[in-house]
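Look at a sample.

——
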Amino acid sequence: MPTDPQPRLSTVPTIGAVPPDEWDRLAAGAQLYQSHGWLRWAEEYFAELRPRYVLAHDADGALLGGVATYLMTEVPTRYTTWYDPVRMFLAPHCDPAGAAERWFPVLLVGGCSGYHGELLVASHLDGEGQARIARALLDRCRDLAAELGAQTTTFMYATKQTAEDISRIWGGAGPVIATSAEAIIPLDGAADFEGYLARFPSARRSKLRKELTAFTGSGSRLGRYRLVDVLTEVTPLMGGHQRKFGADISDEEIGRYLRLQDKHLGSGSVVFVDERDGRINGFTLCYAHGDTLYSRAAGLAPEAGPFAYFNLAVYAPIRHAIEGGLRAVALGAGSYQGKVLRGAEVHGLWSAVVPPEPLEDGWREVLGRPFPQAVEAGCA
């Protein structure tokens, strides 16, 4: 099919300016984090990041490509800390004193949440046409960074090939950096949960069964709800989980986070809970999108049953996904060993960065070294 050699580019301040069906056709092969609903949630929750969406249309007005951008003007203190380039690219390897003043503002391209960034291009275009649209979008993002006074431009949590392509389009001004990884359990060929278990050697299968029976034998009951039905109960569990791992966040803020997710994504939500005596002692929040079930949040009370995490975050989502005809469960980043032992495949995620210039010698020397999480995942 012929492609428009000069796509019409525009920038809009809200994803609401793009009809959901039009955007979701463009994002049909992308992950949850590029869906219209997820972007609407991120736009409202992270309003201070001043989102803008760079769009490419053909001469007839058909949407050929799009990418989300966000302007981070200050060092983040909540969920977007994992998108802070100083924290991710410098701090693990050198003294970053004074870096914030030099690196910020930062233009985030591809996403600000979910730890998976993508550039969307219409699938019906041929390879040359897709490359033309991608270049046009990314060139516009560089221009936008200059217009907004951004000192740094970065596209984070992409596949290595995507990050390399983006770096090349941006002139190779900075390195491609191993940043993280995502763990995904493929379910192809598993007709039921027993089919999933059958892929493991006998000794491993026996261990997994023991984790299942220990949980149910403890008196815990596995419940399954929509987010709206248990939002009040799971909010303090998520808050406690976040604070346990160093986040400075209140239950009130967690409640807002979840209420907005329910507002924009609730119809696709499923929450697996550990219930006992009318009390919820643990949960995992997931969203179904495309052919995948995505695990997004969790929390456990001390009273949770044995192996509650694996029952709520792995086994229950697998059962649910198989029942719904889904092909994979995406478990996200971290705890890679435990996830791999339960059938997950680990895929590395990389970042392309255009740092401020001139760049201090000490920072230039370390820029490009992998973030520790990528090393943990074996992807660096």
In short: The CA atoms of residues 103 and 225 lie 43 Å apart. The domain at 8-181+348-376 is CATH 3.40.630.30 (Aminopeptidase).
